[in-house]
Amino acid sequence: MQKFETLTGVAAPLNIVNIDTDMIIPKQFLKTIKRTGLGKSLFFEMRYTQEGKELPDFVLNKPAYRKAEILVAGDNFGCGSSREHAPWALLDFGIRCVISTSFADIFYNNCFKNGILPIKVSPDDLKKLTDDAERGANATMTIDLPNQEIRGPDGGKIKFDLDPFRKHCLLNGLDDIGLSLEKVSSIDSFEKKQAQSQPWL
């Protein structure tokens, strides 16, 4: 998993509440088990017409936000069904950080396992960040994970809280497999001892 330390990029405003995982990546795209290739279908029903043509008014189709790496979204982001394809699609598009006042628990947990930083902020801070994100090409923010702060285009700073263990995993690029591999010597030692004491297993 790619490490997350400091990210500076364009922030796209998506001021919609209760964005569920079906809106993030509709059910017809869940047939794959690959983590790549889903970015083109991110927010499919909001980005495209039924004929597959881009809707110019959708934020990620606007020239200033086509390479956005940060999403500033409304309350309760990622609600609905527990599909891991949702963070896969965000990451494949290029989104590495989502900022909201609240997240659905399963989506929130899945973000950390895929190298995406979900940040919870107060409603007042979200309003300010949304205003910053609406500046188009000038909507550049810096997400500083080591110092747990968001720096806006005018130099303003907003601090955020994060569980220390989740922070450690992101800073070191550790998903569940990576965490297991950190213990590989202990696992090997246990397996050798078990093979000697219980050779019938």
The CATH architecture comes to: Alpha-Beta Barrel
Mean pLDDT: 92
CATH topology: Aconitase, domain 4
Q: Using DSSP, what is the number of strands?
A: 7
- How large is the share of residues in beta strands? 15-25%
Structural class comes to alpha/beta
| Rg, Cα atoms, Å | 19 Å
> What profile does the largest beta sheet have?
7 strands, mixed
CATH superfamily: Aconitase, domain 4
The coarse silhouette is globular
Write up this protein.
The chain is α/β, with parallel strands linked by helices and 201 residues long. It has one domain: Aconitase, domain 4 (Alpha-Beta Barrel), CATH 3.20.19.10. Helix content is 32%, strand content 16%. It contains 8 helices and 7 strands. A 7-stranded mixed β-sheet has the order 4-3-2-1-5-6-7. The longest helix has 14 residues. The model has no long low-confidence stretch (mean pLDDT 92).
List the helices and strands and how they pair.
Layout: E1 6-14, H1 21-24, H2 44-47, E2 70-73, H3 85-93, E3 97-100, H4 105-112, E4 117-120, H5 123-133, E5 140-144, E6 149-151, E7 157-159, H6 164-171, H7 176-181, H8 184-197
Parallel strand pairs: 1-2, 2-3, 3-4
Antiparallel strand pairs: 1-5, 5-6, 6-7
Descriptors:
16% strand; 201 residues; 7 strands; alpha/beta; 32% helix; Aconitase, domain 4
What would you say about this model in short?
Helices cover 32% and strands 16% of the residues. It is of the alpha/beta class.
